[in-house]
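I am still learning, so can you show me any protein sequence you like together with the matching C-alpha cells, please?
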Amino acid sequence: MGEVVWVIGRHTSQRGAQELLTQPDVYGALNANYDLVTSFITNMTFRGRVEQTLSEASTEGKSVVGIRSMDDDEVNIHPAEYVQQVVSFTAPWIELDSDDPLVAHVSKQVLRHEVAYASFCGVNNIVIAGPRRRANIAQYAHAVASVLTTSPYIQFHIDLSLVEDESANADTGNLSHIYDSYAMWDLWNTVRSIPPKLPNMDIQTRWFTEPIRILNIQASIYVPNAKGFPVLSKSHQNLINRYMKQRPAPFILLGDTPPLPSTPTARKDPHDSLNWLHYLQHMSKNQKPLSAVEKFGAGYQDYLQAPLQPLTDNLESTTYEVFERDPVKYEQYEKATRLALEERDPDSTTIVAVVGAGRGPLVFRALQAAESARRNIQLFAVEKNPNAYVTLLRHNRETWGGRVTVIKSDMRSWKPSFKVDILISELLGSFGDNELSPECLDGVQGVLNPAGGISIPTSYSAHYSPLMAPKIHADISGRLSADPNGPETPYVVYLHQVELLAENQYIHNAWEFTHPQPVNAFAPSSIAGLQASGLTEGYNEHNIRFSKCTFKIPRRGVVHGLGGYFESVLYRDVELSTRPDTIDAKSKDMISWFPIFFPLKNPIYVPDLSELDISMWRLTDDKKVWYEWIVEAYTVLDDDQRFRLGVSDLHSSKKVACLM
C-alpha cells in the first residue's frame, strides 16, 4: 500500500445564518476538486424560535420546556444524493454543559432533533461542538451519549481545538484560571482544529495517540509566500503530514476560504479562491516516500497479533516467506558469520551449524560468508519442521550443490559425534526471549566446541517502557466477549498511535541472556543432564528473570500497557535492535520484528510529575514459560515521600510458550 489519498472538504464556519445548502453548492465544490462540503443542520430561524421559547420559560419560572422539531424553513439540508458528500455540524450555540439546568435541557433536545433529522436526510458524518466548561464534562458526555445510537451509519465527531486559547484569560480578565496546554486533551476525544500557533511537540504527540477523524484547518493559518500565494509554515506541514499517517487517515476540512469562483480562474493567480485547496493537494501529492518499515507495516499499524510459537508449532511456508523479506537482518547475520570465520585458522575446516534453519535463509548467508572470508566450512542445517525439511533438501540439491548436510531433528535432541565451532540461530522473538531462544540454545549447547565455540547471537536483552495506547486498548476491550484473556495476553504489534510516557522516552533494559552459558549456570542439573532424555525438575530455573524499574512521568496521561523491545549482539560489533531510539544506529530498516505489547486490564491515570514502578517476571515451571507484570503509580510529595495513587492487577500471560 502506498501513500494515502487525502480527503479534503470545504468548510464555511459561518454557514448557519439562512444559507440553504443546495445541489449547485455541493457540486460546485466537487467540481473545484474538493471532496466534501460542510453545513450546519439548522439555521438562525430555528435558533430564534428556540431562544424565544427558552426566554418565555425562564420568565415564567419553568424548569422544563418542550422544543418541537424543525420546520421546513429552519433547516439547511434536505434528503438528496449529494448529502453523502456533506459533513453536518450541529448548532454551535447550544450549551450541553450549561450551569443552567433549563438551558442544558433545551440544548439536549435541540441536539436530538438535529441528529434525528440529519439521520433522516442520509448524513454520514456529524460534528458536535465541544464542551465549554471543564467542570461539567460528565454532563456534556452524558448528553452526547444519548444520541450515539440514533443511527448505526453515522460517525460522530467532537469539535475541539488542539489547545485552549492562551489569550482568553487576558481578554476576559479571568486571572484565576491558569493556562494549561493539556486542558483540551483532558476534555478528551478527538482534536479537530489546528491553531495558528502550534503547541509543543509533546501535546502534538498526545493527540496523535487519539482517534482523530477530522482535521479542521482554517484558511487564516496560511501565510503568503514571496509570490503572494497562501502556504503553510513548516511546522504546520509537519503536523498535518504526521496526523495523516493515522489509519484510517482523518478527513481534512478547509475552513473559511473565499467564495468559490463563478468561472474558472488562472491556476497561477494569487487571488484564486482555490489556492488554499491547491496547496493541500500539492502536499498530498508530494508526501515523503514511505520507509522500508512503513511499507512493510502498512495495514498492520496497531494491529494485534499473537506471538509465534515455533517450538511447538510448525510454521507455514508463507510465514517463513514474510520473515525472509528482511534483507537487513540477514545482512547482519552474514556480516557476523564472516567476522567469526575470519578469526579462524584459514588452513582448517570450520564446522558450522544452522539450528532452526527454516527454509534456509541463514544457510545461504553462511555459505556466502565463507566465500567472502575465504574459509573452508562444513555446514549442517538442523530443522524439526518436516515440511521445511523438504525445502532444505531441495535447496541443497538445486542451489547449494550438496554442500550442506540437512538434519531433520529438534535441535535439543541432536547429538552429533563431533563438536560445532559456530552455532547460528534465529530464534529471537519480539521481546528477545519470548519464543524460547534461551531454552532452545541451552538444549543444543552441548554440541558446541567447549574450546572457543561461538554462538551467533552471543547475547540478547529485553527492554520495556510504559505506553499510552488508547487505540490498542479499545481493540483489546472490544474482544473481551470472544477472548476474556486478552488483557493478559502479550501481543505483537506495529506500534503506531502510541506515546512513550516516561521522561525523555526512557526505555528500561530488563534482563539479558548470553550464549554459550557457563556450564555451572545450569542448575540443578549439569549440561550432560540437560541433554539427557527428559526434562528434570528445576532444570530451567536459571532462565527465570525479574526486573523492577521506576519511571519518572513528567506529564499526565493514561498507562494502557508496556511496549516491549529487544537488542541483540550477533557477534562483536554486529547488532540488531527494535528499540525506537537505537534501531536506526544498529539495524536501520529491519522489518522482521514488531514490538510486543503487554496490556493493562484497567488502565492507570497518572498526574503530572508522577512515578511508575513497573515489575516484570519471566517465569517457568519446566513445562512452559510465561510473563507476569504489575504497574504501581505514585505521586511525589514535597518532602520526597511517595504516595501510591493506584496499582494495576497482577497480570499473568495466559497464552504461554510451551517447552514440550
